[in-house]
């Protein structure tokens, strides 16, 4: 076998670096965009780049929805992207089995972040009749990350199913205790 | 995958259509809500491991066939646009495309017993 970390019944290993690095790069680009937008929302920079929709970006980024939480919504997005990038980096290329918790954190960070982005895209025209180019860019980035991140989560969840069926402690397997390593394929 | 690329483009069309065709508020809001969701499900299903997500677009396509009558659209062009997009999205959602890679039995294998990954795991441990 080419890679001894290929999950049983799979044709490839979803946790290799070539699988993970593109997602990490996307997360870092998203982090850059969201950080720039939150600097505008925090009044650190006075204007925001908007090539197509005139004053719309300002309207969106200073809207009531953007201030619902104690921190501006773009700052929350930046935290989300940071979580994605860090959770993408931690662990080796067998982490779907050695540390399922980080794979699940990664999947949970990528999934809901994408969904919140889509919700914000919907609110732009419906509530404010405006569009924000960089907000749309950020939404596109977080959407395109979802699909490629989910295969690794699938491998971890299937592993957890085998752990459960083998009556090995799912708690210990989830957190990657050394004592359960190698007990389940 | 090509079918889900087309569905993503159809979703983007929904997002811009109200501005292009001059829709009233009810029709525009509907398109602005449904469009991004269709794009999302279509894009997520570009990858084989999540190809099943394409089916989530079926109810959205069906809604687009009904929405003009339930929400009472005024412009004929918008009615035609939404219904055509709805019909096309339904059709393309059924196109699975080539899926040659094995994923241990997929998402249902998380709760179903005796699925591909479990059989393969047993085989591997017997060979040790």
Describe the structure.
Chain A has 185 residues and is an all-alpha fold. Chain A has helices at residues 17-41, 56-61, 73-89, 95-98, 100-128, 133-165, 170-175. The longest helix of chain A has 33 residues, at 133-165. By secondary structure, chain B is an all-alpha fold. Chain B is built from five helices and no strands. Chains A and B meet through helix 5 and helix 6 of A and helix 2 and helix 5 of B.
Q: Summary?
A:
Chain A has 185 residues and is mainly α. Chain A has helices at 17-41, 56-61, 73-89, 95-98, 100-128, 133-165, 170-175.
Topology:
The complex is a heterodimer of chains A (185) and B (128).
Chain A: H1 17-41, H2 56-61, H3 73-89, H4 95-98, H5 100-128, H6 133-165, H7 170-175
Chain B: H1 2-21, H2 25-44, H3 57-70, H4 76-93, H5 116-127
Helix pairs in contact in B: 1-2, 1-4, 2-3, 2-4, 3-4
- Multimeric organization: heterodimer
CATH topology of chain A: de novo design (two linked rop proteins)
Largest sheet of chain B: none
* Total tally of structural domains of chain A: 1
Low-confidence stretches of chain B: none
As a whole number of angstroms, the C-alpha radius of gyration of chain A is 20 Å
Q: What is the C-alpha radius of gyration of chain B, as a whole number of Å?
A: 19 Å
In percent terms, what proportion of residues of chain B is strand? under 5%
Tell me, briefly, the overall form of chain A. elongated
Protein name (chain B): SPW repeat protein
InterPro entries (chain B): SPW
Transmembrane segments (chain B): 32-48, 55-71, 77-95
Keywords (chain B): Membrane, Transmembrane, Transmembrane helix
